[in-house]
Amino acid sequence: MKNRLKIERAILNLTQEELAEKIGVSRQTINSIETNRFVPSTVLALKLSRLFGKSVNDFFELDDDDK
């Protein structure tokens, strides 16, 4: 799965720590999502969607391997 979380976070000028605090996870969780080591739960993806005011599909996309 590919994601644009790092890009979207940079647009809002948020650090990983600031984003983590806003959605109730650790900075390490944000880092793991951004580096594709962790696939977020549906609840976490929806929290990100709400915070950024964008659809989940704006953040996450399936790789060819995932299809």
Task: Summarize the SSE layout with pairings.
Layout: E1 2-3, H1 5-11, H2 16-23, H3 27-34, H4 42-52, E2 60-61
Antiparallel strand pairs: 1-2
Helix pairs in contact: 2-3
Give a description of the structure:
The chain has 67 residues and is mainly alpha-helical. The protein has a single domain (2-55), classed as lambda repressor-like DNA-binding domains (434 Repressor (Amino-terminal Domain)), CATH 1.10.260.40. Helices cover 51% and strands 6% of the residues. It contains four helices and two strands. It has helices at 5-11, 16-23, 27-34, 42-52, and strands spanning 2-3, 60-61. Strands 1-2 form a two-stranded antiparallel ribbon. Helix 2 packs across helix 3. The longest helix has 11 residues, at 42-52. The relative contact order is 0.23.
Provide a compact summary of the structure.
This protein is 51% helix and 6% strand. With 67 residues, it is mostly helical.
General form: globular
Count of domains: 1
- At the fold tier of CATH, the topology name is 434 Repressor (Amino-terminal Domain)
Please tell me the CATH architecture by its name. Orthogonal Bundle
Mean residue pLDDT? 94
Main β sheet profile: 2 strands, antiparallel
Q: For the record, what CATH class applies?
A: Mainly Alpha
Instruction: Calculate the terminal CA-CA distance, rounded to whole Å.
Output: 10 Å
Strand content is 5-15%
Strand order of the largest sheet: 1-2
Radius of gyration: 11 Å
How would you spell out the order of helices and strands?
Answer: EHHHHE
Considering the protein shown, what is the CATH homologous superfamily?
lambda repressor-like DNA-binding domains
- Counting helices, strands and paired strands, the structural category is mainly alpha
| Strand tally | 2
Low-confidence parts:
none
The number of helical runs is 4
Keywords: DNA-binding
Protein name: Putative transcriptional regulator
Domain HTH cro/C1-type: 5-59
GO molecular function: DNA binding
